[in-house]
TrEMBL record:
Catalysis: reaction(s): fluoride(in) = fluoride(out)
Location in the cell: Cell membrane
Gene name, Swiss-Prot/TrEMBL: fluC
Native source species: Anoxybacteroides voinovskiense
Any GO MF annotation of the entry: metal ion binding
Protein name as annotated: Fluoride-specific ion channel FluC
Keyword entries, A-Z: Cell membrane, Ion channel, Ion transport, Membrane, Metal-binding, Sodium, Transmembrane, Transmembrane helix, Transport
Listed transmembrane segments: 27-49, 61-81, 93-116
Gene Ontology cellular component annotations, sorted alphabetically: plasma membrane
Binding site for Na(+): G73, T76
GO biological process, one term: cellular detoxification of fluoride
Length: 128
């Protein structure tokens, strides 16, 4: 059952990822890979939030795996981040390349932390 859920959720995450890429094409932002950055920020926030929110023992493991690994995992994309960075370097866009790495790393961590905090606050309110 979990394989089916991960597969279906993965398909949905990949389609969402593609749609964001269509909405935010790299060419529109002077070669800066904004679509990948947005996807990874949103995915980091969602995974941080979801991992915290779904940590209760009663949450079904198959659903947690489907959403975290399937949906969010296929939505975010480290491989595209890596290729985008290398393409910027190949075009000698050094400042943009390192800005992209900095924003991706620290922005992703900040988004994950924000998702974690939002889930903690939501969970506390639900417990009251």
């Amino acid at each position: 059952m979990v394989y089916v859920v991960v597969g279906i959720a993965g398909m949905l995450g990949a389609l969402l990822r593609y749609y964001v890429g269509v909405l935010l094409p790299t060419a529109s932002f002077f070669g800066f890979p904004l679509g990948t950055l947005v996807v990874n920020f949103v995915g980091s926030f969602l995974l941080g939030w979801f991992a915290t929110w779904s940590a209760r023992p009663s949450f079904p493991l198959w659903l947690k795996t489907g959403i975290a690994t399937g949906l969010i995992g296929s939505f975010t994309t480290f491989s595209t981040f890596s290729v985008d960075f290398l393409q910027l370097v190949q075009h000698h866009a050094w400042k943009m390349a390192f800005l992209y790495v900095f924003l991706s790393m620290f922005g992703g961590l900040l988004c994950s932390w924000s998702g974690f905090r939002v889930a903690k606050q939501t969970t506390r309110k639900e417990a009251l």
